[in-house]
Amino acid sequence: MSKLVIFGANGATGHAIVEQALNAGHTVRAVVRTTFRADLPNLEVLRGNVLDPADVSAAIAGQDAVISAIGPSGSRANGLYSTSAQHFVTAMLEENVDRIVVLSSSGVRHGDPHHPLWYRAVARTLMRELYGDMRAMEHILEDSGLNWTAVRPTRIVDTPATGTYRVGDAENPAGGTAINRDDLARFVVQETMEDRWSRSRPTLAH
Question: Would you say 91 and 5 are in contact if contact means Cβ atoms under 8 Å apart?
């Protein structure tokens, strides 16, 4: 099994990814800005900020792969995704770590034919800055030469996991509007190891 560093581990999705990674037998370094109450085997909790390059480098050192489940507290990114992506790339190249999987969003793609018209309007207006920064993150990873995957979930919900979902290639699956959080977390952990969607943008929906 592998050593995985997970940024944004204190968020709901980040916490689910930590659980799935531990259940799969991996050793996890969970990077958080605040407290993370957990005393579990194979889990190391590290305080750090993705906007601090020194914190990012320290967190990535000695790891086999990177997972990012970071997200802003509000509806504006304020450079969170793009800045952290640059720090990830710099640290990974320095530490000779090649694999990274990040959470993006299906809303990043403008004009997705399987998005309802109202959602396209929201993506271009209210969510424009947030999705624009996610798009910048994806471009930074694409240009890095690293083995990256940008997972684009649809709306994340906390319904019971089904283990069954559809994955589109940079395109929302037709009629899909949501993905269960645990199913998403399981996909992220599996993809970190299997590379089925290497240098791609898988988009998940039930």
Answer: no
pTM for the full model? Answer: 0.95
Order of strands, sheet of 65-68, starting from the edge strand that comes earlier in the sequence:
43-47, 27-32, 3-7, 65-68, 99-103, 147-153, 202-205, 166-169
Please report the domains of the chain, with CATH numbers, ordered by start residue: 3-205 (3.40.50.720)
Local confidence pLDDT in tens for the 206 residues of the chain: 899 999 999 999 999 999 999 999 999 999 998 877 777 889 999 999 999 999 999 999 999 999 999 999 888 999 999 999 999 999 999 999 999 999 999 989 877 777 666 566 566 666 789 999 999 999 999 999 999 999 999 999 999 999 999 999 999 999 898 999 999 999 999 999 998 999 999 999 99
Phi/psi zone of residue 96: left (φ > 0), alpha (ψ -120 to 50 degrees), beta?
left
Cα angle, residue 140 at apex, residues 134 and 145 outer, rounded to 5°: 140
Tokens 């089925």 belong to which residue? 196
